[in-house]
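User: Predict structure, ligand adenosine-5'-diphosphate.
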Amino acid sequence: RPPMPRPDRTRVMVVANQKGGVGKTTTTVNVAAALAQLGQRVLVVDLDPQGNASTALGVEHRRGVPSTYDAVVDGVPLAEVTTECPDIPGLWVVPATIDLAGAEIELVSVVARENRLNKAIQGHPWVGGADDVGEERYDFVLVDCPPSLGLLTLNALVAGAEMMIPIQAEYYALEGLGQLLETVEMVRAHLNPRLSVSTILVTMYDARTRLASGVADEVREHFGDQVLKTTIPRSVRVSEAPSYGQTVMTYDPGSPGALCYLEAAREIASKGAPDR
Ligand code: ADP
Ligand code: MG
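Assistant: Predicted complex:
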C-alpha cells in the first residue's frame, strides 16, 4: 500500500463518547492498524479498564502486566509500559489492566489529577516534533476511552489536541452528545485550550435501512466537515476479529469493514491536524 506522508509532529487523538457500545474501541484499534499500514508510527493507549483494545491488538493485559495504570497513577514513564503489537509493524500499545478501574477514585486525591496522562504522553521520548524527535517519533497517539465522563476520560481530553467521536447509526445516536460537547467546552475553557473535535465517524452503518442514512444525514447537518466521508458498515467480520486477538485489518483485510477503516485512516492522515 502506498504510504501516506507523516505529520510534522505527533498527533494525539482521543476516541471518546460516554455511551458504551458505539464503536470507540473498534474504531481505535482499526484506525490505528490502518494508519500503521499506511506507513504511520502509531501508539494506542488503552484507557478502558476492560482492556478491550489490548485484547483486539493481541497484547496481554492480565493483572501484573505493566500498564496504563502504572503510568497514570504511579507516574511510571510511558515508554516503560509500552509494548509492540505482535502482528502489526509500526504499532505499539499501552495495555489496560483491571487495576485501572480503581484509578477513577485513586486519582481524586492526587496532585494535578487531570494532567497525569498528558504528562505521561508528553514525557515519552517518541512524542513531539520532527525537529526534536526525528524519525522515531510517533505520528499518532490514539487513546481509547472508557464509556463515562469520569477522571480517566477527563485525563484523555486534557492530553489530546484532537478528539474523534464515533457515532453509531442507530436510534438515539445524538442523545448524550450535548453533554459530551459541554464537557469538551469546559475542558477547552479551563484545562486544554488546544482541544478540538476534529473527527466524527459514523459506525455500524446499515445501508439497507432508511434509519441509518437518516442518522448519517443528521450527523452531517450538525457537524459538517468534521464528519468523515467514509462510514463504517455493520459487518460480522469486524465484530469477530477481537475474539482472535486481531483487528479486522489483519483478520480479513479484503472485507468491507477493513477497506472502510483503511479509507477512514487515509482521510484522517490526509486532512492533517486542525489549525489552532
Ligand atoms: P465501545 O468501545 O464504544 O463500547 P465497541 O467498539 O466495543 O464499542 O463496539 C461495541 C460492539 O459492537 C462490539 O461487540 C463490537 O464488536 C461491535 N461492533 C463495532 N463496530 C462494528 C461494526 N462495524 N460491525 C459490527 N459490529 C461492530
Ligand atoms: Mg470500548
